[in-house]
Structure formats: C-alpha cells, structure tokens
Amino acid sequence: MENTETIHNFPDVKEIWSGIGGHFDSLGQIINEFVDNCISNFDANNTIQKNICVQLKELEKDGNVEISIEDTGTGIKNLDAAFTLGGRAGAESPLNEHGFGLKHALASANPTNDSWVIYTKNESDADKNQYRAIKAPYSIGEYQISVLNPSETNWPGVYSLKTGTLVRFICSREMYRTIYKRATDFVRIADALMEDLGFTYADIIKSGRATILIKTIPYGQSEINESVGALTPLWEQYITPGSGTEIINLGGGDVKLEYEFGRFTELEDRQQFNNKTAARHYKHSMQSSGVEIRINGRIICSNLFNEVWGIEKHNSYNNFLVKINIISDNPDALPKTRTSKNGLREGDERLEALYSWIRSKMEKPPKDISFSTHETDLFEELKKMSYTSRGILSKERGESYRCDTEMHVFTHSNNASDKVRIDMFESIGTINYVYEGKADSTTSKDVYQLRMYWDGLVYDGIVPSKGFLIAKEHPDTVLEIIDIVNTMKDARGNSYNFEAITWESRGIITER
Q1: For a disulfide at 191, which of 108, 276, 439, 503, Cβ 3.0-4.6 Å?
Q2: pLDDT, tens only, 184-238
Q3: What's the rounded Cα separation, in Å, for the pair 106 and 67?
Q4: CATH for the stretch 233-367
Q5: Check: CATH 3.30.565.10 for 13-227?
Q6: Sheet containing 431-437: order of strands
C-alpha cells in the first residue's frame, strides 16, 4: 500500500512581491505598463474620451516623487482577475498578454509594498455613486478594499468623468532618475519621459487611440502641463520594398503588417522637442537605426541588426530604418513579448518568421557611405562602383578586369610577416592601379605607405601603372612630397607615378 504525504505550499506574500518586482530596466518602462492598461481599456470598450494623465510630483527638493497614471476608461470591471497573479480573465487586448503586468509594475515601482493605491470606478460603481480603492500592502486570498462615496471623499484625480482608473505610488529619487540617468534636474527627467512616451506610443497617439498629458509639479513651483506628441521619423527616401501593408501568417493566424523601409533625416515634428534636452530617438546614430518592431502601434523593440541579418551595428547604417507594425487582436498570432514588454522572446517561431519575412524583402541593409568613419567601407564602395563602370566597360572590350581590396604584396617573401595588404588593387587589361587611402585627411606617412605598396607589386613581378592617394582632402605638404617621390625610380627603373585624388572626385560623398 502506497503512503502519501501533504506538501504545504502557501505562498509568502513578501517573497512573492519581491520576486515579481525588478523585471523592468527603468521607471519609464513601469509607467508604460500602466499606460498599456489604459490603452487596452480604450481599445476594448470603444471609449469616447481616451485621455491619460501622467503626473510627476516632487514631494520635496531632490526627494521622493509621487507618480500618478489616470485614465478616462471604463474602470476595472473584474478586480478579482486584475489582482490575481497570472490571471488573464480580465484581459481586454493583446497589451494584457501576460496577466502579470499590473502586479509586476506595482512591485517594481514600490518594492516595499507600502505606498501604492489604485482608485477605480466602473459603470456599476457610477450607478451606485461610489468608487473603490485598493491599497498597499498586496495580499493573496481574501483582499479587503475600500468603497468610497464621492460626497464624502472626492475622486482624487484630475478627470471628473463618470468612470476611470487612477494608479498612484511613491518612488525614490534614485528610481525616478532611471528614466534618464544623464540628468539630475526634475523637469529635465520629465522631458525625457515625455519623449519616451511619444516614441513608445507614436502610432497610437497619431491614430487618435489615446491622448497623453504630462503634468509635472516641481517642488515649490507651478505645475507644467504638456501634451505628448507622436514622435515619428521624417523619411528622406524609401528603399525597396518601400512602404505598404501585407497580410501574412507568422504561425498562429493572419496578421496585418504595416512596413516602412528607408532612410530618415530627423523627427517629423521636431518643433515639439526643440527645447528638450534628451532628444534620444530618431537621431543619426547607431542607437536610432535598424529594425523597430511595434505590436498594434506600441513599440516592443528597436535597433535590431544582428538579430535579423547577423550583422553588427555600424555608422554607415546611421540613418537606415525599418519600421514594422504588427496588427492583430489574436494574441496567438503575435510574437511573444518579454514580461516587461521591452523586447521579443528569441526562439519564438513567430518572431523567426517575422525576421525571415524582413530578409525576404531586404536581403541585406544598404550602407550610406556618407556616415562611414573608416576607409575600409569607402574602398568597398569604390570597388562596387568600379565594377559597375570600368569593369563592365572592360568586359565589353574583351579586356580582363580585376578590383581587389584583399590583395597582399611581398607574397614571394618566405617570411609571412612581410606580406602586406594593400587598400585596393585595380587591373584593367595591362594597366595596374594601386590605392592607399584615408577617410579624412592624409599625412606624409600615407605617401610612403603607397610607395611600399608600389614596391611590393614590383617585388612580386607586377608592373604598376599609377598609384592613387585618395582621401577627403590633402595638405600642401603631402602634395609636395608626392612631387618629390615622382622624381624617383623604383627597382625596375621606372618612375613612380602618384596622384592625389578625393573621394568626391570618384563619386563618393563622405559627409552630408
């Protein structure tokens, strides 16, 4: 006969609260989670008034900060589900994907589980002329909440509509600074949050699915009210496949993809952010380029290169952008997000299918050589241009053609360390060109580097015809040295034949 025993696994609330917190990298991401709930409620209930107010109140100079996120939605209908870990019975849209968001955000915002409160009033509450308050500390099992009458205690938010929800908590100054760690000033950090919200919810704001107000209250000063605008790029040009929409199946049902492939110049509405100090999005930088993926208008991840194409970020991609917005009300059809919604789960077949779709549209992102900071990229561009001009012409004439950026000289030496790679070698029939280059300006050393390449070709039995020193510009001293070297002869008794040229003369623009 088999004996049995009982395991007692009643959860410890303190340990659970500590365990589910800390999944966010910054206070901004925590605020996003509460904003997600507001937008999800608007979308699910076709709310007419779609207003969100994020209030930042400095409680004392350089001290703690009171954060409030209020909406004009329909209130929380199912409080049991909303406060159950993993409970999705109250989920209203794919923005409520995990069933942990509200609890995760509260535990991360208020690790001590002592200063948060949620006020909510739904249609039923409105009919009874009441609203409800759920306060810290969080509890499991039976959870007592307060039912309040507006005649006795006024609604604590800024909106006076029939229904809505308000989340409020107090965080430390250190946590507040995680919004923008480079700043210490209270208002500057609020400005950074405003920009982040404009970026995260750009498509949602632009389509009218929500309006967001930032109310900043510095200690001892007047409040500042600003509406968050949609932060979107101004496209310089689209690159094939350009922009459009397509219905595809990523593995769990059809989704609609809105896509834009191209190069951008700046923000579409720069005026709104001209006086802001953060300006972290859609700049010509490695952090603003690559692929960005949104789900139903909400940013999930951006700055993807290696994940999609297996290549690293580089300056020459600095104004290259692919915007993907996946639209679906079916959570099973969408790639799975991380719990904090600051990325997608690698290994998910839907995500891999999305990457594959992007590669089918663009096998490899095109470089903008004007952002390159290294001559290697410039020579690769010159090589490509040479093949499409002189290479084709040589083939039509029946001449041999070669353009090589990996060629070595002094190859007949028995010492491997003597072998030297030249910047570029070009051969058109019996004519041989050798190149040495710099991205910006040359020095006297570069002239003698070119001479070494020339001498290496001679050593290997190749007769050079001309040597090009190429750069953005050449100082007069370099030009004088070239004139001197051209009076000399190489080991075969032939005169050196060097010429200083620019990238621009070869059709390559190295700056905007």
Answers
A1: 276
A2: 999 999 999 999 999 999 999 999 999 999 999 999 999 999 999 999 998 989 9
A3: 11
A4: 3.30.230
A5: yes
A6: 401-404, 424-428, 431-437, 466-471, 498-502
**CA 194/CA 210 separation, integer angstroms:** 15
Record the tokens describing residue 59, joined without a space: 């409680």
Domain segments of the chain as ranges:
13-227, 233-367, 371-506
> Amino acid letter at 127?
D
pLDDT tens-digit series, residues 331-348: 999 999 887 788 899 899
Q: Which residue has the tokens 């699915």?
A: 209
Kind of pairing between the strands at 146-148 and 131-135: antiparallel
Global pTM value: 0.75
**pLDDT over 70 at 358, yes or no:** yes
Residues 6+ apart with CB under 8 A from 447: 469, 478, 481, 482, 485, 498
Q: What is the dihedral of CA 119, 124, 127, 131, to 10 degrees?
A: -10
C-alpha span between 36 and 30 (Å, rounded): 10
State the Rg of the chain over Cα: 31
Contact assessment for residue 239 and residue 366, using Cβ atoms and an 8 Å cutoff:
yes
| pLDDT tier at 176, thresholds 50, 70, 90 | very high
Please name the residue that has the structure tokens 């929409």.
Answer: 245
**Nearest 5 degrees, angle CA 460-CA 466-CA 469?**
105
Tell me: pLDDT of 19 over 90: no
Q: Does the structure show a pLDDT above 90 at 435?
A: yes
Domain over 371-506 is classified CATH 3.60.10.10: no
Q: What's the confidence (pLDDT) of residue 277?
A: 43
CA 284-290-293 angle, 5° bins? 125
Take residue 362 and report the two structure tokens written for it: 């663009």
C-alpha closest to that of 26 among 228, 200, 272: 200
Q: Quick check: 200 and 33 in contact, CB under 8 A?
A: no
Q: How far is CA 107 from CA 20, 52, 124, 233, in A?
A: 7, 22, 28, 35
Residues in the chain: 512
Q: Give the confidence band of 455 by pLDDT, cuts at 50, 70, 90.
A: very high
